[in-house]
Inverse folding.
């Protein structure tokens, strides 16, 4: 029995990584037609993931422009989605997380009264401007959504506090753990692109990209890295630099050509996740890394003033350092010099899932489509 059509829409690297397990699971269900739409808010960094997980989009809006702004992404997604939705008439549109693609695609579906399923729903800092614009992207998507897939109990609580009906929320775990478990292997061998890294040294894995950190905050972060490398001769920084030119220009200016600092192109997810597994410490302002590293037993210093992912902080494997040079330097210095402090943080915990989130999400979608057909007969 044909249950209906599900349109999965995403546009950036992390959305693709986290939606890949859901697409794989949806495609196993013969009774559901799955249509994949990429906005390509990211291009190269999205294509890396599509290639790794062998996803061929049915539609590609090819939106990315160099140094794009929020207005062009939002209007591009809205206008691009209009025709695709009119043509395909899906029974459900599935979006992920908190990007501008997420919000604009959910809004586009709402304009045609198509129900929206929100994967990774309910994370909140309760600060409108941090992360910016992601906090509002996620909150507004939550207002539009019909099905809320919350990764944790805390996320469910956040939604309930905003009067989302309990029967519309499912705690599924985060699909990033599904992707990670498929990808990390103890015997993984790195290719020649990483040949310059000395894997016998202690590796600090670094990523930065958040809009609210652009400028002086990012300078402070990079300054702290310089001090750490000066202090510890057995430490190397490995920093696959986001393609955003604002980030790239500053990273190159401050960290380029420095001894034991490796500025790399964005890595494919497979080498990146395995590199995280070999690293000693993760310093990042990324959302996804805060979820992945704890499950690999890697301490994380979060280079942000707020986080919508408090679970690993409560479990003690993640610390929110803020962005001041001194705070980051001191927190990392302590972990690199005090074995006890390090061991206390380096425990594998999994508050974000058990690797079966996608299976749970697809089960709910099947039930939803089944009930919907019943209502139409
Ligand atoms: C976007 C999301 C952010 C998410 C992040 C993940 C918004 C507003 N921001 O931020 O929530 O955490 O992705 O990485 O939705 N670029 C390339 N090639 C790429 C990707 C980006 O050249 O494959 C460059 C382009 O010049 C582009 C710029 O990076 O204009 C910024 O991309 P954009 O998606 O606007 O912002 P991100 O900082 O990547
Ligand atoms: N990632 C990757 N290659 C890299 C850096 C990160 O594949 O060079 C992965 C990482 O494992 C995580 C995701 O990209 O799954 C995080 O993306 P990003 O930090 O850009 O976005 P955020 O999670 O902050 O939205």
């Amino acid at each position: 029995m044909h249950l209906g059509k599900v349109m999965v829409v995403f546009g950036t690297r992390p959305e693709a990584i986290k939606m890949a397990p859901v697409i794989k699971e949806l495609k196993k269900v013969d009774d559901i037609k799955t249509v994949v739409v990429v906005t390509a808010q990211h291009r190269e960094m999205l294509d890396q993931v599509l290639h790794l997980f062998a996803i061929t989009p049915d539609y590609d809006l090819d939106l990315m422009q160099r140094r794009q702004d929020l207005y062009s992404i939002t209007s591009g997604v809205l206008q691009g989605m209009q025709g695709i939705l009119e043509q395909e008439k899906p029974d459900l549109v599935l979006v992920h997380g908190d990007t501008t693609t997420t919000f604009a695609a959910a809004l586009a579906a709402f304009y045609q009264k198509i129900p929206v399923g929100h994967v990774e729903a309910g994370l909140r800092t309760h600060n409108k401007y941090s992360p910016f614009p992601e906090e509002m992207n996620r909150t507004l998507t939550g207002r539009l959504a019909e099905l809320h897939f919350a990764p944790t109990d805390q996320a469910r609580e956040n939604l309930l506090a905003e009067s989302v009906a309990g029967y519309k929320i499912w705690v599924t775990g985060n699909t990033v753990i599904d992707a990670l478990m498929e990808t990390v292997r103890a015997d993984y061998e790195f290719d020649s692109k990483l040949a310059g890294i000395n894997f016998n040294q202690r590796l600090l894995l670094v990523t930065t990209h958040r809009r609210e950190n652009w400028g002086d905050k990012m300078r402070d972060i990079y300054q702290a890295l310089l001090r750490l490398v000066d202090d510890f001769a057995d430490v190397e920084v490995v920093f696959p630099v986001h393609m955003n030119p604002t980030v790239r220009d500053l990273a190159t200016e401050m960290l380029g050509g420095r001894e034991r600092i490796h500025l790399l192109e964005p890595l494919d997810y497979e080498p990146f996740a395995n590199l995280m597994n070999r690293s000693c410490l993760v310093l990042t302002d990324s959302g996804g890394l805060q979820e992945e590293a704890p499950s690999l037993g890697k301490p994380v210093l979060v280079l942000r003033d707020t986080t919508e992912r408090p679970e690993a902080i409560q479990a003690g494997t993640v610390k929110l350092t803020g962005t001041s040079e001194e705070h980051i330097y001191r927190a990392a210095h302590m972990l690199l010099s005090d074995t006890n402090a390090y061991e206390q943080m380096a425990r594998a915990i999994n508050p974000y899932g058990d690797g079966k989130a996608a299976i749970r999400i697809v089960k709910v979608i099947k039930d939803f489509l089944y009930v919907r057909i019943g209502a139409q007969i």
About this structure: The CA atoms of residues 172 and 360 lie 6 Å apart. Residues 357-376 form the longest helix (20 residues). Residues 13-14, 17, 176, 207, 209, 240, 266-267, 269, 272-273, 286-289, 292 surround uridine-5'-diphosphate (ligand 2) (CB under 6 Å).
